[in-house]
Amino acid sequence: MIWPLVFLLAAGPQFDITDARGKKPSGITIEVGSPDEDGWMALKLGGKTKVPYTLVWPYDGRAKNLEGPGAINVLVIEQGDAKALTVPKVAVALLARELLGSSADGASVASLEKAEDYWSKGVALLYSKKAADAVEPLGKALRERERVITRIPSEIYPAAMLYGRALFEAGKFDDAALAYLKASKQRPSDMAPRKARAEALIKAGKPEAAAAALNQH
Length: 217
What we know:
The chain is an alpha+beta fold. The protein has a single domain (2-215), classed as Serine Threonine Protein Phosphatase 5, Tetratricopeptide repeat (Alpha Horseshoe). The protein has 8 helices and 6 strands. The strands form 2 sheets. It has a 3-stranded mixed sheet. Strands 2-3-5 form a 3-stranded antiparallel sheet, with no helix packed on it. A hairpin with a 7-residue loop joins strand 2 (28-32) and strand 3. Helix 3 (118-127) crosses helix 5 (153-169). It starts with a helix and ends with a helix.
């Protein structure tokens, strides 16, 4: 019974591609680039469709192989579809992209005001500059992603980064440093979480630990 799983893992990452309506768009494929030194691969939309699509999630178009069965979540929307921007799962993905340094493409926080899931609520609060209120839901969102049987790095990394940002802006610098450490473990070669952790450690009055964080690899 182990052979089918071994074959799937050897064949490369599996993707669960959905659009704004939660449907699987026909004709869409994912082209995967070569992994970097941390194992992360650039994703690109491929295939043939009647209308062009935009890759919305993972937020920076990068993903890593899973250590177990399952698929990497991929969210796409039709280019120029203004209604898609009001769909909660699309809006939260785009707002998270902006918070993490990418474009939000006109997404509105208003569509997330009544969100019940921790991720959507936390992202909306952080985007609205309510970091102290965002700490709890983003912390729970991160723990949810860490507790699943097959952890998905492209879901854990942004959750850890935004949780760290909420903690930092709320003045909880030691906790922020720990959150950024979790992000750094997902992408050891990426300077962004290391710099963020160092800044948190400096704010916490730990300059030597901050210097070590920057040089750690």
